[in-house]
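Q: How would the structure tokens look for this protein?
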Amino acid sequence: MPTSPPTRCGDPECQELTTQGRCEAHQRRAWANRPSKMERYGLSSGAWRKLKRRVAARDYGCCYRCGADQADVAQDDSEAEPFVLDHKTPIFEGGSPRDMDNLGLLCPPCDAAKSRAESLRANEARYRNR
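A: Here is the predicted structure in token form.
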């Protein structure tokens, strides 16, 4: 498939040629304007880690959706991603950011599936409210 010829980087002061809009040095970061956890939930990173430890102890390190045990996954695959702390009811749907009953551990596959479903619901709600 033919490609377009290289053009100058989209940054006004850069002269580097690229086939994209901007050169590697001037690519925009995907989440650059996303607020921090402190701004979103009112929780510092340390408080978030503390909550995760408390939830992991309460749930015995198991995913609340599929029941996978974090210790078993780590034994089977040394490069497995760690479980993530998740809000069972999303904040945008009225869930509490700090309530222990609204927090649980998710394994990476369950987290990806739940995140996709939440994104769809949030987008549908946004378009419905237009």
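DSSP finds four helices and four strands in the chain.

The radius of gyration is 20 Å.

Upvote if useful.
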